[in-house]
């Protein structure tokens, strides 16, 4: 019974979080469209900027939906598709996208001497994207994010660090449980 209660609480917390994450870009897009519909004499550069912001928010929304779909796939026998790829090129691509999305957030990548790896692109993208989003979301404004890669024997280490408060030691083993999020979404103050 206690396990069921805990699972239900985790699911509710997760759903509250997802609802908030989905509503945020939708609210931004709605506001942009309402501004454009008022047919004020907006300068062309403002119209372009609003359209670019709407497209950016749509991309964010699409990413959230894709993450939810990937989570569902993983729960129902996801078939990994491993391919040979350059780890450093994959990370550099993510760093470039991140810099474009958050130009004021310092991010540094220190590539290790790793030539190629076997990777499922969709899963890897989801993991890196989530780690970078969390580093941005839970770090103080202007806090630096660092990415390092290294190899020891047959193991590759990918380390993403930030200047946020971190995860309490007693929570670290729980973060890999399905639906688990630290804290309570009803009282969360981070976006």
Q: Can you offer a commentary on this structure?
A:
The protein has 191 residues and is of the alpha+beta class. It contains 4 helices and 5 strands, in the order ααβαββαββ. The protein has a 3-stranded mixed β-sheet with strand order 2-4-5. A two-stranded antiparallel sheet has the order 1-3. It is globular.
Query: What pattern of helices and strands is seen along the backbone?
Result: HHEHEEHEE
Give me the secondary-structure category.
alpha+beta
Tell me, briefly, the overall form: globular
User: Strand order within the widest sheet?
Assistant: 2-4-5
Total number of helices: 4
Number of strands: 5
Percent of residues in beta strands? 5-15%
Q: Tell me about the largest β-sheet.
A: 3 strands, mixed
Poorly predicted residue ranges: 185-191
The end-to-end span amounts to 33 Å
**Portion of residues in helices?**
40-55%
Mean pLDDT: 82
Radius of gyration: 19 Å
């Amino acid at each position: 019974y206690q396990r069921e209660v805990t699972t239900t609480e985790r699911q509710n917390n997760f759903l509250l979080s997802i609802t908030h994450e989905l509503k945020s870009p939708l609210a931004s897009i709605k506001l942009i469209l309402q501004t454009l519909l008022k047919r004020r004499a907006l300068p062309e550069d403002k119209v372009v900027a609003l359209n670019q912001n709407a497209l950016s928010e749509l991309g964010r929304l699409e990413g959230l939906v894709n993450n939810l779909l990937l989570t569902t796939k993983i729960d129902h026998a996801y078939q990994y598709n491993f391919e040979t790829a350059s780890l450093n090129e994959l990370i550099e691509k993510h760093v470039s996208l991140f810099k474009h999305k958050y130009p004021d957030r310092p991010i540094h990548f220190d590539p290790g001497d790793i030539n190629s790896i076997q990777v499922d692109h969709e899963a890897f993208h989801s993991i890196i994207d989530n780690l970078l989003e969390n580093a941005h979301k839970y770090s103080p404004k202007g806090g630096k994010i660092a990415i390092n890669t290294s190899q020891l024997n047959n193991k590759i280490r990918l380390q993403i660090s930030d200047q946020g408060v971190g995860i309490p030691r007693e929570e670290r083993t729980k973060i890999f449980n399905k639906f688990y999020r630290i804290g309570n979404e009803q009282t969360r103050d981070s976006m």
